[in-house]
Amino acid sequence: xxxxxxxxxxxxxxxxxxxxxxxxxxxxxxxxxxxxxxxxxxxxxxxxxxxxxxxxxxxxxxxxxxxxxxxxxxxxxxxxxxxxxxxxxxxxxxxxxxxxxxxxxxxxxxxxxxxxxxxxxxxxxxxxxxxxxxxxxxxxxxxxxxxxxxxxxxxxxxxxxxxxxxxxxxxxxxxxxxxxxxxxxxxxxxxxxxxxxxxxxxxxxxxxxxxxxxxxxxxxxxxxxxxxxxxxxxxxxxxxxxxxxxxxxxxxxxxxxxxxxxxxxxxxxxxxxxxxxxxxxxxxxxxxxxxxxxxxxxxxxxxxxxxxxxxxxxxxxxxxxxxxxxxxxxxxxxxxxxxxxxxxxxxxxxxxxxxxxxxxxxxxxxxxxxxxxxxxxxxxxxxxxxxxxxxxxxxxxxxxxxxxxxxxxxxxxxxxxxxxxxxxxxxxxxxxxxxxxxxxxxxxxxxxxxxxxxxxxxxxxxxxxxxxxxxxxxxxxxxxxxxxxxxxxxxxxxxxxxxxxxxxxxxxxxxxxxxxxxxxxxxxxxxxxxxxxxxxxxxxxxxxxxxxxxxxxxxxxxxxxxxxxxxxxxxxxxxxxxxxxxxxxxxxxxxxxxxxxxxxxxxxxxxxxxxxxxxxxxxxxxxxxxxxxxxxxxxxxxxxxxxxxxxxxxxxxxxxxxxxxxxxxx
Length: 666
What we know:
With 666 residues, the chain is an alpha/beta fold. Helices cover 58% and strands 11% of the residues. Helix 14 (445-456) packs across helix 15 (480-493). The chain is rod-shaped and about 245 Å long. The model is unreliable at 29-35 and 662-666 (pLDDT under 50).
């Protein structure tokens, strides 16, 4: 939390750009009618373009970020002077982050700054520089294309004119002038001559037929001639007339002579006319034959010219192909030139701004969730490390099961630390705080755990296991004295006759707790200086009897561990149900082990999670060597909350008493 509060607040503004997958064309031709596909590598390329120094530089120049007061204050707080374009460009790039959104065609542009308005301003400036730069680049490229196309068209126009002129000139030289799209003059002439030759041959055949049919006087031509027909009728008439005159007139008759003369003249004319008609048919045959020959000669010449023209057409075709390719190339460039002119001024960026950056209201860094997760992780690591360290350092007993497995002895009871039981009237630190709490809270879980000690020993019951119970510990400050006083008071309050004997000559914990250091005590009774009745003091809170100590003389150490103490204990058994011996710690005090051996049973007090296991083992070994009858262990000062977590019986005590205090169900 401290790191989060003192961390510098960073605000992040986002701009989302989308790449257009198809090129929007106002004028489409065969050359431009195709899509400009944006694929995945192209998107990654545009991401790198957005991160390039050129885009950042354009953003600085367009928005004048190097002189913007807000930008300077956010990025260089110590200066108010304008920055160079290069320095401002580096500052823009330092907070800029561009990434592709998954596998889409969207790009996320982010800019971080400690000023939210500056982050939004710079993010929008970079996006505008990118989009505007693409438009400007497209306009510049289109202008360059128009100039290049114009220059190239001038060259191609000259190439087309020269190619077409070469075709025309060669066609003229080779006499390959076309009459139609498919025929030349030679081809047309040969076709015409072939037609005329066929007609001439037909005429010749007809003439030859007529000539053979008109041979003699009975030819068809002769018979068809009207002159000859008239002459023949005239001859026939004259012959008839002459026959009539011959029968009636003599040879010298003038009419007969005149008729004979006319007949002779008619016959002569008929013969002459027949001869003339026959000679005309032969002349037609000769003329038709000559015509056929002439046409055949012309065809031969035309074929020669056509063959020469075919040889020349190969070169002509090559020239025409060159001219056609020049025309097509010229037309292609002309179409492009027209498209570029028509679309000038319609340039647009291939990326659109879907969402412009808004001034962020909350900082993106530090992220409270990240700090919480980091703090939690560090806390867990630290807690685990601390727990491991404490576990490594801790040699104490934590659970009843652990104590029983380690020592082989049973745990008689676990006495809770009253301070962990949420008891507001408990006065911790006072000598009689624990015994007094037991006397005033006889139904508390603590009182129940103390009762379980003398219950386990069957004190005041049939088959009582022991009357003298010694309480000792491995080392001082484990709670044996408080346990002894609590045990005596608990049994006394239950109606048992109890006696508590302070056997710790060095600390005299019981004596000091009850404030009994003035009168006679155990040493005086053992020395015969006082009777037991004179030395015993009654505890007013419970009715228990207490035999204190009032001396620290080292000469008295031996008397406590003498047979007189054993005799005193035997004497007291006749008057008390339970005699509790508050014995000094077993390891540092030698006479403690001897006194423990005099008791019927010994309870070894072990402080929860404090008494080191090696010391506990040593104390048990020393007590066994002294022939002490160790009945079991008593865990003291058990944390009630931790014991509940560990599953100790204290959790069940608290649960039961909490239910007992609750109102009964209806």
